[in-house]
Specification:
The longest helix is centred in the C-terminal third of the chain and has 27 residues. A six-stranded parallel β-sheet has the order 8-5-3-2-1-11, sandwiched between helices. The chain has a five-stranded mixed barrel with strand order 12-13-14-16-15. Strands 4-6-7 form a three-stranded mixed β-sheet. Strand 1, helix 3 and strand 2 form a beta-alpha-beta unit. The protein has three domains: about 200 residues, 2-enoyl-CoA Hydratase, Chain A, domain 1, CATH 3.90.226; about 130 residues, no CATH class; about 55 residues, Beta Barrel (OB fold (Dihydrolipoamide Acetyltransferase, E2P)), CATH 2.40.50. Helix 6 runs antiparallel to helix 7 and helix 11 runs antiparallel to helix 12. It is about 50% helix and about 20% strand. With about 425 residues, the chain is an alpha/beta fold.
Length: about 425
């Protein structure tokens, strides 16, 4: 029994003294954000921070590359970072990445801010969302609000407050070496492994007090976006939202013009629902959406009325202008690509030209049902026919017939007109 206790004691000493890293090995959660800061990315980051708290992780590293994004999503992320008990590290990477606009706010809010070589940070001046044009007073209010916010964050994190203010007011931007020199970030790291080594023994201040990071032997847990988050991230692209909107409109129009087709209606309805989700996460300009709708209506009216192309030209003009204005904002990350607008416009024109051609052919096609189908058919006179009456056999049926010129029995006739139950015919030359 004594020998057993001795073995257990030695094992205990080994685990807790000779091999502390084995006993207390922690993890570092790594999140990767590449693209516009919007609700799906905010949800992804907040989920990662929550998981870090649940597992008592050593730190959370957010690898960031963004041109900016929505103010509301950025503030949700920053608020969570400022109230985190787990140290948050923002790493602007890989080489060539940037933390512009909303990305600058998020980087400054980190407990530790790092950048890879060849990256830049800044250009955080607020822009109008929703396509509206801000007047001077409103622009000043929005700018002052953003300045106060970023100054408060910078002061709390001990960063260069003056630089942070100029990043908002004058949209200045700095390279990684300039940012380090000016006290905007804490370190420069070539890659993620180098960053984790640099973080070891670094002291940070969280809401629960000071903490010394122990990342040297920590396990790296790369938390990827799940399928739902990837899907929502994909749908939040302005170009994808625009394409889904067009597919939805085409599908509904085709279903209404061909009741019972089902498939176009189903695809159109699904696309419209997805487009509506995308549009609610983006700064949509309702004037642009209205012009697109007006353009579609004018193209539909061309199918109903003869305008000699005027309705078509008006519809195309409204469609193109509306597409350009749909996300008409000073922020380039929310602008539609012209390489998307042009093909979609051409497809829309071809779509309605195709429908117009079908409608024209249907209008010109000879009727195949009803009395109208008899006009132009050939028949045989069964009796002599004059202006009074006679009998003819047309389409296998016996009809009463009249003629302006006399027609002899058994002569071939052509139907010119249908007058009730009497056919007006002429002799076939």
């Amino acid at each position: 029994m004594k020998n057993l206790l001795k073995v257990l004691g030695i094992s205990f000493l080994f685990l807790f003294f000779l091999s502390p890293t084995l006993a207390f090995s922690k993890e570092v959660i790594v999140l990767t954000v590449d693209g516009i800061i919007h609700p799906p990315h905010a949800e992804y980051i907040l989920k990662g921070i929550k998981k870090a708290h649940e597992s008592n992780a050593e730190a959370v590293i957010i690898q960031l590359d963004t041109p900016g994004g929505l103010d509301t999503s950025m503030r949700d992320i920053v608020k969570e970072m400022l109230n985190s008990h787990i140290p948050i590290v923002v790493y602007v990477a890989p080489k060539g990445a940037r933390a512009a606009s909303a990305g600058a706010f998020i980087t400054i809010a980190a407990h530790v801010a790092a950048m890879a070589p060849g990256t830049n940070i800044g250009a955080a001046h607020p822009v109008a969302m929703g396509g509206e044009k801000m007047d001077k007073t409103m622009a000043e209010k929005v700018t002052n609000d953003a300045v106060a916010y970023i100054k408060s964050i910078a002061k709390q994190r001990g960063r260069n407050v003056e630089w942070a203010e100029q990043a908002v007011r004058k949209s200045i931007s700095s390279t990684e070496t300039e940012a380090l020199k000016k006290g905007v970030i804490d370190l420069i790291a070539d890659d993620l492994n180098t960053l984790i080594k640099e973080l070891h023994d670094k002291k940070v201040k969280t809401v629960s007090g000071e903490k010394i990071l122990k990342t040297k032997d920590a396990k790296i847990n790369e938390l990827k976006m799940n399928f739902r988050e990837r899907l929502l991230n994909f749908l939040s692209n302005p170009n994808i939202a625009y394409i889904l909107l067009m597919i939805g409109i085409y599908g509904i129009i085709f279903e209404l013009s061909n009741p019972g087709a089902i498939f176009p209606g189903v695809i159109g309805a699904i696309s419209l629902i997805l487009a509506f989700y995308s549009l609610q996460t983006l700064p949509i300009n309702y004037a642009g959406a209205g012009l697109i709708l007006l353009g579609i209506i004018l193209l539909i009216l061309e199918l109903k009325f003869t305008s000699y192309g005027l309705l078509t030209l008006g519809g195309i003009a409204c469609f193109v202008l509306g597409s350009i204005m749909l996300f008409d904002t000073a922020n380039p990350v929310f602008k539609l690509s012209i390489s998307v607008i042009i093909p979609v416009t051409i497809i829309t024109i071809l779509f309605f030209v195709f429908l117009l051609r079908l409608a024209y052919k249907a209008h010109k096609r000879k009727p195949v049902t009803g009395v109208e189908e008899l006009i132009g058919l050939m028949g045989i006179a069964k009796t002599d026919i004059d202006s009074r009456t006679g009998m003819v056999m047309v389409h296998g049926e016996l009809w009463q017939a009249i003629s302006e010129k006399p027609i002899k029995k058994d002569e071939q006739v052509i139907v010119e007109e249908v007058q009730g139950l009497t056919l007006k015919v002429r002799k076939k030359e």
